[in-house]
Amino acid sequence: MANNDVSAALRAQYEPVIGIEIHVQLNTASKAYSSDPTEYGASPNTQTSPVSLGHPGTLPMFNESQLHAAIKLGLAVGAEIREVNEFARKNYFYADLPKGYQITQDKTPICNGGFIEVKDADGNPKRINLTRIHMEEDSGKSSHDIDPFNTLIDLNRAGVPLLEIVTEPDFRSGEEAYQYLTEMQRLVRYLDISDGNMEEGSLRCDVNISVRKKGVEKFGTRVEVKNLNSFRNVQKSIDYEVNRHIALIEDGGKVTQQTLTFDASRGKTQLLRDKEEAHDYRYFNEPDLQPVIVKEELIERMRASMPPLPKELFAKYRKQGLNEYDASLLTDSKEIALFYESIIEHTKNYKAAANWMMGSIKSWLNERAAHIREFPIPAATIAELIKLVDDGKVSNTAANGELFKALLESPESSAAALAEEKNLIQESDAGELQTWVDAALAKYPDKVEEYKAGKKGLTGLFMGEVMKLSRGKADPKMASKLVQQSLEK
Ligand code: ADP
Ligand code: MG
Q1: Cα–Cα distances in angstroms (integers) from residue 130 to residues 35, 138, 145, 196, in the given order
Q2: Cα 335–336–339 angle (5° rounding)?
């Protein structure tokens, strides 16, 4: 079984156990303990004051924005928020860590508990419990692949604030891990505490993986996979490792505790180091920073400043009658959800509002790779369009077609006035409609015969012709009735 081939039957005898650590880089303007800017992509080593460089005699100063971000995330996941927050030094030597230690939180993380909900293999809701969230700082960045002989070091990142989020070993599949990460990314973006971009390293995750025979309580030996650059690769590395562990155990071997990386091009993990040489970080209290005290009042202030959360909006939209697909698309990004929110301030036709968002508006955005804030038509005007269609004044086709185009040209106009001006007000006058119906039937006499012989599906053809003749102005409900009647004659 050398090549990790594991049959489904064998796989079913085992249970994967997975825990995830995420590092979220916060989008604060300045670093965690200095006023150095944090902007991504600046020239190497240009955002490095003596504090970031760890020069002797410099002192850290705590950036409150980091605290605010931690509290917001804690509230969003329902964690307990600590009152007295101490900082600790985690000591290790590495060239991109000029101080020789990282300032972090050891025994007193700002948040304990809380959870993120995912769906298990049967589609049932399942909680992924969080162990802790703590505040810390980033190290510098080492590049091993730019210069062929040397490792290059950029200390711009040294001291950028991070939140580390650690889960309980609650995941049972790569799919659950994928959902969790997607939700976490969406959450930090909603809360506007991080851009959540994996490519730029704003969201980095380490995945701990083990397997155990079903029914066994004791966890198996775990490996840790680092440097994962996409959620799909997280899922793939889990699937790969789970199969490898099972094959190894079935072969009479033993999993050893190792740190691995995932080689995405080969779809395999690779050994980074054996865990035997486990570090002793000699944690001790950071003497240069006072503990940060979180008062109830601050927590309440943060709570009041929070946007609606994606899961709350999702539940609300489901309750308003949208299906799961629409509700989840609408809540994918905060900006889309908020635009939808402002449409439904003016209409109760939620389904139509969702259709506008996912249809014409989304297409407009996609064609231009534009952001919703660039969309020119006000939400209230979209609601006006919905009303025009609901009242039978404008056809859905005309509303999404010519009228939508006209509004894009002059977004400050009223939809009704433009419809009038563009001659798009729907014809529901029976006499006028009948003329178009007669013309449509006259154009295809042979099809009329076929219809009479039983080919009822042909009504679509005649309706299409009526819409064409009327330039989309025929009220489709009435026209359809007239077509039917005329054919039955
Ligand atoms: P470390 O200090 O080595 O990082 P932690 O105790 O902080 O270890 O755990 C790190 C992560 O590993 C957590 O998300 C935890 O849930 C997970 N974990 C712990 N034991 C196991 C195991 N046997 N299998 C899979 N994941 C595990
Ligand atoms: Mg850890």
Answers
A1: 31, 21, 36, 19
A2: 85
C-alpha angle 212-213-219 in degrees, rounded to nearest 5 = 25
pLDDT in tens, 394-452: 989 889 999 999 999 999 999 999 999 988 887 777 888 899 999 999 999 999 999 99
Q: Is 184 in the pocket of ligand 1 (CB under 6 A)?
A: no
Instruction: Give 7-21 pLDDT, tens digit per residue.
Output: 999 999 999 999 999
Distance 317 CA to ligand 2 centre (A): 37
Q: Is the CB of 128 under 6 A from ligand 1?
A: no
Cβ of 450 less than 6 Å from ligand 1: no
Pick from 172-176, 229-233, 361-365, 474-478: least confident: 474-478
Cβ count near 358 (within 10 Å): 16
CA-nearest residue for atom 17, ligand 1, is 19
Q: Helix, strand or coil for residue 345?
A: coil
Q: Considering the entire predicted model, what is its pTM? A: 0.87
For ligand 1, say whether the CB of 20 is within 6 Å of any of its atoms: yes
Closest CA to 95 of 150, 50, 142: 142
Cβ 310 vs Cβ 186: under 8 Å: yes
Nearest CA to ligand 1 atom 13: 19
- Token duo for residue 168: 């309980």
* pLDDT computed for residue 278 by the predictor: 65
Q: What is the 3-state secondary structure (H, E, C) of 429-487?
A: CHHHHHHHHHHHHHHCHHHHHHHHCCCHHHHHHHHHHHHHHCCCCECHHHHHHHHHHHH
Q: How far apart are the first and last CA of the chain?
A: 75
How far is it, in rounded angstroms, from Cα 23 to Cα 176?
19
Give every CB contact of residue 304 below 8 A, 6+ residues apart in sequence.
none
pLDDT at 1 over 60: no
What is the spatial distance between Cα 206 and Cα 23, in angstroms, rounded to a whole number?
A: 9
How many CB atoms lie under 10 A from the CB of residue 157?
A: 22
Q: What is the mean pLDDT of residues 42-58?
A: 95
Q: What is the DSSP string of 145-166?
A: SSSSS--EEEGGGTT-EEEEEE
Question: Is the separation of the CB atoms in 54 and 206 below 8 Å?
Answer: no
Which of 104, 208, 276 to mutate to test ligand 1, by most ligand atoms within 8 A of the CB atom? 208
Q: Does the pLDDT of residue 279 top 80, yes or no?
A: no
Mean pLDDT along residues 377-397: 94
Closest residue CA from atom 15 of ligand 1: 19
Tell me how far apart the alpha carbons of residues 325 and 461 are, in angstroms, rounded to a whole number. 31
